[in-house]
Design goal:
The chain is built from 17 helices and 23 strands. By secondary structure, the protein is of the alpha/beta class. The protein folds into 3 domains: 177 residues, 3-Layer(aba) Sandwich (Alpha-D-Glucose-1,6-Bisphosphate, Chain A, domain 3); 219 residues, Alpha-D-Glucose-1,6-Bisphosphate, subunit A, domain 3 (Alpha-D-Glucose-1,6-Bisphosphate, Chain A, domain 3, 3-Layer(aba) Sandwich); 82 residues, TATA-Binding Protein (2-Layer Sandwich), CATH 3.30.310. The strands form 4 sheets. Strands 17, 18, 19, 20, 21, 22 and 23 form a 7-stranded antiparallel β-sheet that branches. α3 crosses α4, α3 packs across α6 and α11 packs parallel to α12. It is globular and about 65 Å long. It starts with a helix and ends with a strand.
């Protein structure tokens, strides 16, 4: 319902909303279909709970600046985002915290704003790569540190369940709007290679914004840069609808950018997800580049600038990644899958960069957060400095064959993993995130889905034939293969 109406009936369905709250909180964020189970009263409750948690956490950290009583709020282009963000802000203000509304922005802009303004945290209204009828909230605390299930989301849910909009005490926090695009652009362009800024090196790039927030962010940040010529695809985002699903990890969603690269003789192409915190890259031939191999290609230049530094990588990544890190004099740091874990590992190790197979790339100069635009800048800068084609830069890391992620429907996940261990008793194993197994002939990771009766397998070997042979051995132990 419209934001102007929800407050008049707030609290009339309290038991209903208490049930709905349990459905919208996930492992890393809040996300669900709109308007059921996620609606404006749920948004108010989350705003109230998040304000309580974030300001309390900021105070406990000894942060006592005026900004630490304020929370940054942004939103994406979905039709439901304005009313959900308005209800969220009302909940924050009713708790007594201030709101700094940065408007229609990509999620990494919220991370920037938290640090640029020195706030207690921030909340982006978005459902990222999900279809248009979904929405949700990504919540961050001081310094843009993530808030996941075990680092605050459960507490926010508890608070949200404890207060009713009809009876809660309202304290009237202040709200202001801030346009931070110039500051955000300045920060990001400082990270772009000077040859592109001055136009002495030029790149032609196809960019698919997926009708998401990259359609707003990319022009704001990169328009006017002398060395960049862009073919723009799906930059229109005013309708809140998607021409293709805003998930660049699905190969079918890269069809347009691949075609544009090949027809336009581009240096490479990039496709963003809905809130522009991740991206996928294709080379000048329109060939998809795995995010692990892209990370490996970025490593030598990163470590040239940061000798001996750590680099964090997703434990599903190709063996080529730790090999590339060691070859460049760095320290490979394996991480569990998920932004909460990746960001924590970057912070712990002071790593300048990290990456996941899903297209999330993390940067120390972005406060250890993930940013699709920052990753885009890293790729452009690499090409500008090297003078090479992207396929040439990736080729040294195509040393192994990979299965890609394969899902198996499995009712008893623990029994299946035990069967794998028993089938390969001599293999080296690790339990950092699911089961990682090195059987010599192949190596793999098997992780259980948090939300579905699925096991997810990523397997690698020396060549495609070895991958297929290895799959014939291990797949029968994992259940029924699910084709997507």
């Amino acid at each position: 319902m419209p934001a102007t109406e929800w407050g008049s009936v707030a609290g009339t369905h309290s038991l209903y909303h208490l049930r709905m709250l349990s459905q919208v909180f996930k492992a890393y964020d809040v996300r669900a279909t709109y308007p059921t189970p996620l609606d404006e009263e749920i948004a108010w409750r989350i705003g109230y709970g998040a304000a309580s948690f974030l300001t309390e956490r900021a105070a406990a950290a000894g942060a006592d600046s005026p900004g630490m009583r304020s929370i940054v709020v942004g939103r994406d282009m979905r039709r439901s985002s304005p009313s959900l963000a308005m209800a969220l802000k009302q909940g924050i203000r009713d708790f007594g915290a201030g709101v700094i509304d940065v408007g229609l922005v990509d999620t990494p802009m919220v991370y920037f704003a938290i640090n640029h303004l020195g706030c207690a945290g921030g909340i982006q209204t978005t459902a990222s790569h999900n279809p248009a009828h979904y929405n949700g909230f990504k919540i961050s605390q001081v310094g843009a540190k993530p808030v996941g299930a075990d680092s605050g989301l459960k507490r926010i849910q508890e608070i949200a369940e404890s207060f009713d909009p009809a009876t809660a005490e309202r304290h009237g926090g202040r709200e202001e709007s801030r346009d931070l695009w110039r500051d955000y652009r300045d920060h990001l362009l400082r990270l772009l290679d000077v040859n592109l800024l001055e136009g002495s090196r030029r790149l032609r790039i196809a960019v698919d914004a997926s009708n998401g927030m990259a359609g707003t962010c990319i022009p704001k940040v990169l328009d006017g840069v002398a060395g960049i010529e862009m073919t723009r695809i799906n930059f229109e985002n005013h309708t809140g609808e998607f021409l293709h699903e805003p998930n660049p990890l699905v190969e079918a969603n890269l069809a347009q950018v691949k075609q544009a690269v090949c027809e336009g003789n581009c240096d490479f192409g990039v496709c963003f997800d809905g809130d522009a915190d991740r991206c996928m890259v294709v080379d000048e031939h329109g060939r998809t580049i795995g995010c692990d191999l892209l990370l490996a290609a970025l490593v030598p230049e990163v470590l040239r600038q940061n000798p001996g530094a750590a680099v964090v990588y997703d434990l599903r990544a190709s063996r080529s990644v730790p090999e590339a890190i060691r070859a460049a004099g760095g320290v490979p740091i394996e991480s569990r899958v998920g932004h909460v874990f990746m960001k924590a590992r970057l912070a712990e190790t002071a790593a300048p960069i990290g990456g996941e197979l899903s297209g999330h790339f993390y940067f120390r100069d972005m406060w250890n957060t993930d940013s699709g635009v920052r990753a885009f800048i890293a790729v452009m800068s690499l090409l500008a400095r090297s003078g090479k084609r992207l396929s040439e830069l990736i080729a040294p890391y195509r040393n192994y064959a990979q299965s890609g992620e394969i899902n198996f429907e499995c009712a008893d996940k623990a029994a299946a993993l035990a069967a794998v261990r028993q089938r390969f008793p001599q293999a080296r194993t690790a339990d950092l995130d699911g089961l990682s197994l090195d059987a010599g002939e192949f190596w793999c990771n098997i992780r259980a889905s948090n939300t579905e009766p699925l096991l997810r397998l990523n397997l690698e070997s020396r060549d495609a034939a070895a991958v297929e042979a290895s799959l014939r051995l291990i797949a029968p132990l994992l259940g029924r293969r699910v084709e997507h």
